[in-house]
Amino acid sequence: MDYTEIKKWLKENLNEERYLHTLGTADCAKKLAKKYNLDEEKAYLAGLLHDCAKCFSKEKLLDIIKKHLNVEESEMLNYKTLHAPVSAYIAETEFGITDKEILSSIRWHTLGRLEMSDFEKIVFLADKIEPNTRDKEYSQKIITILNEENGLNKALLICYKETLKSLVKRDLKICLLTVEIYNKLQDLVQN
Predict the structure, then answer these.
(1) What pLDDT digit, counting tens, does each position of 95-129 carry?
(2) Do the beta carbons of residue 134 and residue 128 sit within 8 Å?
(3) Torsion angle of alpha carbons 97, 101, 140, 172, nearest 10°?
(4) Are 21 and 133 in contact, with CB atoms under 8 Å apart?
(5) pLDDT tens figures, 23-41
(6) Those residues with Cβ within 8 angstroms of residue 103's Cβ, 6 or more apart along the chain or in another chain
(7) From the CB of residue 26, how many other CB atoms can be counted at a distance below 10 Å?
């Protein structure tokens, strides 16, 4: 995969902060993949492309979803998550990515899903804790938890707790899937 061409496209289609976030996510995903004995290059690529549609207009996101994707109505509650399925679509159509693990990790990096694979979990977490644009104190807390037994699930649970708090604080709708994943993680961490 030619990262130079991908980075050029990203630089043209993302704002500067989102581009820095993307590079940080790619590096973080690669490090997490190494930690969990997963494919580092695939993780880097997933991190690089996870937000490729993030700076598309709401209208463009909705147009692509309507014409090309099957997105559940419940996922449409918050426009800030619409870029995830569209980013997976762009990764496949614009960059020729066919690897299902990469596409799925991009597709679910915002909401997550029940029964996430470890690969999907590390891309999800990398997006939340990358060092370029994310809060350092929060990131360090998650990194510390990752070193504990069952660390991936514990770290995800912390992320979901923070997400739920943030959505309530900002008076935004909460996708039922988010609540279901939170409950599932509670079970996984407590058992």
Answers:
(1) 999 999 999 999 999 999 999 999 999 999 999 99
(2) yes
(3) 90
(4) yes
(5) 999 999 999 999 999 999 9
(6) 88, 91, 92, 97
(7) 25
pTM of the model as a whole:
0.96
Residues 6 or more apart from 91 whose CB is under 8 A from it? 49, 52, 97, 102, 103, 106
Instruction: Establish how many alpha carbons lie within 13 A of residue 37's alpha carbon, considering only the half-sphere containing its beta carbon.
Output: 0
Q: How far apart are CA 60 and CA 75, in angstroms?
A: 16
Q: Is the pLDDT of residue 1 over 80?
A: no
Picking from 111, 85, 114, 108, the residue whose alpha carbon sits closest to that of residue 184 is 114
Domains recognised in the chain with CATH numbers: 3-135 (1.10.3210.10)
If we measure between CA atoms, which residue out of 58, 72, 53 comes closest to residue 13? Answer: 53
Q: What phi and psi, each to the nearest 5 degrees, are found at residue 151?
A: -60, -35
Given a cut of 90, is residue 188 above it in pLDDT? yes
Tokens 């935004």 sit on residue: 172
Structure token digits, residue 127: 């997006």
